[in-house]
Amino acid sequence: MSITIKDVEHVAKLARLELNMDEKEQLTAQLSGILQYAEQLNELNTDDVPPTSHSMPLVNVMREDEVRPSLPIEKVFRNAPDTEDDQFKVPAVLE
After folding, report:
1. Closest by Cα among 16, 19, 14 to 5
2. Distance of alpha carbon 91 from alpha carbon 69, whole angstroms
3. C-alpha angle 33-36-38 in degrees, rounded to nearest 5
4. What SS3 class is residue 6?
5. CATH architecture under which domain 5-43 falls
6. In sequence order, what are the residues at sequence separation of 6 or more whose Cβ sits closer than 8 angstroms to the Cβ of residue 83?
7. What is the pLDDT of residues 11-36, one digit of tens each?
8. What is the pTM (predicted TM-score) of this model?
9. Which family does it belong to (predicted)?
10. What is the pLDDT of residues 68-78, one digit of tens each?
């Protein structure tokens, strides 16, 4: 499969790019080369290759979730501007 100048013009129009004739010719040659290189992949035998969603195995790097003691309520509210009944008191946001 090769790319034509009309293909490049169509894509340029979709991308709202203004290209002069030299740029169109250059992109036509470059894109055709890319497609020819990608067509080489069709020559590979992939019958025994399992489909994957990632090239490398995914590993969870997060720590284990474990229960730990909480801060004392007095220490939590030490920097709070206003509290009421062991809760943060904030201005109303609804009218």
Report:
1. 19
2. 30
3. 110
4. helix
5. Orthogonal Bundle (1.10)
6. 77, 89
7. 999 999 999 999 999 999 999 999 99
8. 0.48
9. Belongs to the GatC family.
10. 999 998 899 99
- Tokens 């990632």 belong to 54
93: tokens are: 């946001």
Sequential DSSP letters for 13-64? HHTT----HHHHHHHHHHHHHHHHHHHGGGGS--TTSPP-S-SS-----SPP
Amino acid in position 51: P
Distance from C-alpha of 29 to C-alpha of 38, rounded to nearest angstrom: 14
Give dist(CA 13, CA 5) in Å, integer.
12
Instruction: Find how far residue 69's CA is from the centre of its chain.
Output: 37
